[in-house]
Sequence to fold (99 residues):
Amino acid sequence: MPNKHSKVLHMPQRTCAVCKSKKDLDKLYAFIIIPEGIIIDPRRRLQRRRHYVCNDINCLSNLEEWEKRYFKKHYGINKSWSELDLQSINSVQGVNNGQ
Ligand SMILES: [Zn+2]
Fold:
């Protein structure tokens, strides 16, 4: 449980992986990287190293490029946008549309 003093009005901030701007946590989606691709984890339930991306169509659509660079750098492979990624992104965009 958080302690009694932690009635924080100030949101913790994280940096968007795509545009590198700092934003409040509630303006960002958490996602994790697995070898198969990206999984968006809006409720932040998955216990893995998280990255963040803006709740914003521009950053979401640039996530593909970011992911390619990430895989190149960390795994040394050229990766294409997978089915898994598409499902993940579509589900987030569905949330944005209020569906
Ligand atoms: Zn961003």
